[in-house]
Request: fold
Amino acid sequence: MLLTPRLVAQLGRHQLVPRRRVRGRFVGGHRSSRLGASVEFADVREYVAGDDPRRIDLSASRRHGRLQVTLTEAEDDASAQVVLDRSASMYGPKRRVADQIAAGLSVLGARDGVRLWLAEHDPLANADRLGGGWTRGSGALAHAGLLLQGTGGAHVPGTQATTGQTVGASAAPGEPTGDDDFGEGPAGRPDLTAAVGRAARATASGPLVLISDLLYDDWDATIRALGSGRLDVLVLQVLDVEELRPHLLEDVRLVDAETGAEVQAGGDEGTVAAYAEALRTHLDAVEAACTTIGAAHVLVPTDVDLARLLLAELPALGLVR
Reply:
């Protein structure tokens, strides 16, 4: 079970919303960048032949000395998109939390629809896969659950795996993760920048959400790709509590879950301090990159209070009401 019935009921009373005006494909409930037929006043202009006489504003006509008609705002739909990083380092507890967040966002965005993009790398085919699909309406949560359990997807031509070094310690492929519900992930990392760019070019006009640990070398290119679509962007950086607060007081072997690279670290206070400084530098850089493109950034530990994240932090950012 991804979400408790109580949390689902709470989420059902709220809605994922854009912070800016949208230009959707269908009539909806969000402020549009176009003029339309809602009851929300926008402006007045001079009457021209063919205008609906019912829109004549008598008060404005008297002020201007000529017939004026009322212009109202349009309201469009604002379907959202969620890109999930399914790289090797995003398995175990991080994948569990990422899936729970995606399921919660599917419930919050059920009215307009949410497109889930599952980006993973197939090491056998040496190609990336973009799985997922749309969730919408009363069956959004159930459909999201099926999509998140699936592994299928179309190969993305021309994309190759990228390599990188993690800042934090992750379980190596083949090593137990302590979370058997989700098993082991594929080796390698998908080209998340390409996946994000594809989502940013899609016709959906609602928020674009990235769920990733951002623990790879060219994460900043991914952030820049998020900003190319001029959408409301939310970056949820999921890190394991062991990555945030590692036990490094004994000698440890750190293994990059995606490259297999190993580093022996001596367990002492100096190592702990150096790790904490490197992590803080990385998190500050991610925050700054998100600010540059106008994106909201939220650090999500794997022991997150999901209800607080979805029903308190996201509303505070103006993305849920």
Q: What stands out?
A: Residues 193 and 222 are 4 Å apart (CA to CA). Confidence is low (pLDDT under 50) at residues 151-186. The first strand starts at residue 27 and ends at 46. The chain has nine helices and eleven strands.
